[in-house]
Amino acid sequence: MKDSNKAPQYSELPDTNPHEPIAKKIIHKPFKLASVGVTAVVAIGGIAFAAQQAQALSALDVVNSITSSGGVGVSKNILYGDRPLQDLDMYYPKPLAQAMQDQRTINESYPMIVFVHGGSWESGSKEDYAFIGQSFAQAGYVTAVINYRKAPEHVYPDYVEDTAKAIAWSYDNAASFHADPQRFAVVGHSAGAFNMMAAVSNADFLAPYGVSPKNIRAVVGIAGPYSYDFRQFSSATAFAADATPDEVMPDRHIKGTQPPYLLLTAENDKTVYEQNTIKMTKALRAYGATVENGEIKGASHATSIGAMASPLRWVNDVRAQVLNYLDKELK
Predict the structure, then answer these.
(1) Could you tell me where the beta strands, DSSP code E, fall in the chain?
(2) Which of 44, 124, 167, 213 is at 20 to 30 A from 207, Cα to Cα?
(3) Residue 13 binned pLDDT confidence (cut-offs 50, 70, 90)
(4) Do the Cβ atoms of 94 and 138 come closer than 8 Å?
(5) Could you tell me if 308 and 291 are in contact, meaning their C-beta atoms sit under 8 angstroms apart?
(6) Burial bucket for residue 271 (CB in 10 Å: 0-12, 13-18, 19+)
């Protein structure tokens, strides 16, 4: 979520022990995952209100502080790579979290989502988007909320490569978290939608990890800047000084058999204009991909993701649109 008073960042005007499942380790050692160097915490229930601290908190801090976990579980700081910010948090639906906590036999397999957050490639973290992991887990999805390296220290393609690595790692390790890799989706918002679109629609990014776009069953992009001239905006710092839109925009680099897509725009978005989605949709369809479009009525750039949180679902229908699509494709 972004400050609506800030200038647009990227608008475009019209025209792992391999022999033991990780989740099994969570059952037997609920507070430590030594083999992957992470701490696992299964968070059951509870709601924290922090309105009195609102002035000292960011918008995302406030959203998370008023959002109930709904009984879902989470394993924190799981490494998908060996570089800074190459880690993720994994969220589990309530029945799975309870079975793991009780050390019961788990026979059911759940669909899986990888979520990629926005923030102009310079800000944001998996902790900021805990409400997303909770929201999807409440709907029955094992959900990875990922970190990735940030600009200006890391420019394109570093953050796209991190996204591809996290997607491939999650796909390869899905069964360890009681998730089904055959029911695997990727969702991104804003700059995160760019990351996941670039990583998925161009098979070259996933290829080093033995994964291809066709392994992904569904892709959802929310308010993504897929096709714009970044040189005109402050987000230029996320790209090399001599880079051009033709070299980096994902609508110009589609390769490999494509998964189906849902691309959503926010009706009142003043940060990323709908032309980005129009151009990406046109490019994907010309390539032969299946693409659905939707508009989030009444949504701004910030509320197009903020309304995923349980106390804000009345603001718009983004959650309903995303879940209707994912349920259709994965369940």
Answers:
(1) 40-41, 73-79, 87-92, 110-116, 142-146, 179-189, 218-222, 261-266, 291-296
(2) 124
(3) very low
(4) yes
(5) no
(6) buried
Lookup: tokens for 125: 């973290």
102 or 23, which is more confident?
Answer: 102
What pLDDT is recorded for position 196?
98
Interatomic CA distance for residues 124 and 282, integer angstroms: 30
Q: Which CATH number covers residue 95?
A: 3.40.50.1820
Q: In the chain, count H helices and then E strands.
A: 11, 9
The count of domains in the chain is: 1
- Strand 73-79 vs strand 40-41: parallel, antiparallel, or unpaired? antiparallel
Q: How many residues does the chain have?
A: 331
Asked if residue 323 is part of any domain, the answer here is yes
Reading the block at residue 104, the tokens are 């019961």
Angle at 62 between CA 7 and CA 75, to 5 degrees: 110
Instruction: Give tens-digit pLDDT for 181-233.
Output: 999 999 999 999 999 999 999 999 999 999 999 999 999 999 999 999 999 99
14-47 residue pLDDT tens? 443 333 344 433 322 222 222 333 323 333 232 2
Q: What is the pTM of this model?
A: 0.84
Q: Is residue 14 part of a domain?
A: no
Q: DSSP label at 230? A: G
Give the strand pairing for 291-296 and 142-146: unpaired
Q: In which domain, by residue range, is 309 found?
A: 40-330
Q: For the range 61-64, what are the long-range contacts, defined as Cβ-Cβ under 8 Å and sequence gap of 24 or more?
A: 61/128, 63/1, 63/131, 63/306, 63/309, 63/311, 63/312, 64/127, 64/128, 64/130, 64/131, 64/309
Residue 84 falls inside a structural domain: yes
